[in-house]
Design a protein that fits this description.
Number of strands: 22
Strand content: 25-35%
Largest sheet: 7 strands, mixed
Length: about 450
């Protein structure tokens, strides 16, 4: 079988893979790219971007409901099919545009899954290609849930493209995706039950804030089974029964219209045959990389969600792609430095975090002078004028250096506000400076001064 040779092979056509590929061609390199799914990747097709389209509608309805009796007399009419049709105007053009963009850059494109033949050679469908360097940017996919009846499950990808919104839904998993999906569905009229393995939903965020959010959710009709897991799903006529096992091994059965599986994602690397060429993976099957994103084969790189570098977030993936590009094509010798990484859960209201966590504080407080600012500020004007059920924060300040080292926020406006805290932490802006600044009022940012008092 004849082989085609390139300077660079890129596996995965999401934002991360596209960035490396285009940077390579701009540096005069020959590039081949393949993608087993639609060109464009998770974020614009089945993740961040379409999620935010649905979130915008849910947030509008949520705000109206919060202000019912305070000017609004009823909720507006709503059509889920119309919302999905609007969402599709964003997602449907992307695959063709992304593929054309790659071709316009002189990249030879394929629409196949890839697998290793030897350390420098890969199979792209029926074509064998050889590359001086290889970049793996295959992302992640929903994790399989090995329980009886799993064929009845909808996955998180399906939620963003459902033709209808059921009256009732059980959501398995309380992380980012499960919680965001639950809040969209609940705000738009679906009765939601969540099955959460951990003691709180959004377990990776601050637990005090997560509990405040859960209590708010319960008050508006959501049901939670904490420290629990789904053990079976059965179809009963047009509905489904879900068996739920609690921490004490007791079992509860819930009947619902639809079951959505959001209990984790796994690296999309099965097709690659990494073991054939000795590329190591972690216990969670992520590709092991060093601080320059190199795998155990120095000419093979892994970037984005499939690697064990940073958090599985789109900005992290593009940051990693830039480092690989600078090093391979720009003669640089850059290393990853992720700290701090801001992250947001687009729930209602929003949750956001950056820097030191409560767990890290407990480990560090004996060696450092750290002040904690924690408050449920639901009675502040910023929350009250929106009739928001909750607004809270937890900040960590290094008193010796007079700088912020961690910020955790819950409430209206925090998905944007967290970026200000990120900048303050990253640039080590003095707290005394933040306290003296004149903030535009009344805005979410104007609460910063009060948070630090």
């Amino acid at each position: 079988m004849s082989e085609k040779e390139f300077d660079l092979l890129v596996v995965g056509a999401g934002a991360t893979g596209q960035l490396v590929a285009t940077q390579a061609t701009e540096a005069g390199k020959t590039v081949a790219m393949t993608e087993g799914r639609a060109y464009g990747g998770t974020c614009p097709l089945r993740g961040c971007d379409p999620k935010l389209v649905l979130h915008a509608a849910a947030e509008a309805m949520y705000q109206v409901e919060r202000l019912r009796g305070k000017g609004f007399t009823s909720a507006p009419g709503f059509s889920w099919p119309d919302l999905i049709a609007w969402k599709r105007t964003f997602t449907e053009p992307i695959p063709q545009k992304a593929r054309e963009k790659m071709e316009d850059h002189g990249i030879e494109v394929y629409s196949d899954y890839a697998s290793f033949v030897d350390p420098h050679t890969m199979q792209f469908g029926n074509t064998r290609v050889r590359g001086k360097h290889i970049v793996l940017a295959t992302g992640m996919k929903p994790a399989p849930l090995d329980i009886p009846g799993n064929e009845h499950l909808y996955h998180s990808d399906d939620f963003l493209d459902m033709d209808d919104l059921p009256a009732e839904m059980v959501i398995i998993g309380g992380g980012y995706i499960g919680t965001e999906s639950a809040h969209v569905a609940a705000a738009l009229g679906c009765k939601v039950t969540m099955i959460v393995t951990e003691s709180v939903p959004l377990e990776k965020f601050d637990h005090d804030l997560a509990n405040l959010l859960r209590k708010s959710d319960e008050e508006r009709g959501m049901t939670f089974y904490l420290k629990s897991k789904a053990t079976a799903v059965r179809k009963q006529g047009d509905r489904f029964e879900v068996d739920i096992e609690g921490e004490d091994r007791s079992t509860t059965t819930v009947t619902t219209d639809r079951v959505l599986h959001c209990a984790g994602r796994v690296p999309n690397t099965e097709e690659l045959q990494l073991d054939k060429v000795g590329i190591e993976v972690t216990d969670k099957k992520k590709i092991r990389v060093d601080h320059q994103l190199r795998t155990t084969l120095p000419h093979v790189y892994a970037v984005g969600d499939c690697s064990d570098g940073g958090l599985p977030l789109t900005p992290v993936g593009t940051y990693e792609a830039a480092i690989v590009s600078h090093n391979l094509f720009g003669g640089k010798n850059e290393r990853t430095d992720y700290y701090p990484i801001p992250t947001v859960a687009f729930c209602l209201p929003g949750m956001a975090s950056v820097g030191m966590t409560a767990r890290e504080y407990e480990e560090a407080k004996a060696q450092r002078s750290i002040k904690v600012y924690y408050k449920d500020a639901s009675d502040w004007y910023h929350a009250r004028h929106l009739n928001s059920p909750v607004f809270a924060y937890k900040l960590f300040v290094d008193e010796d250096k007079d700088v912020l080292i961690g910020a955790h926020l819950l409430g209206p406006g925090v998905p944007e506000l967290i970026n200000l805290f990120y900048l303050a932490i990253k640039d080590e802006t003095k707290v005394s400076v933040l306290q003296r600044l004149l903030w535009a009022y009344p805005t979410a940012c104007s609460t910063v001064k009060s948070m630090l008092t």
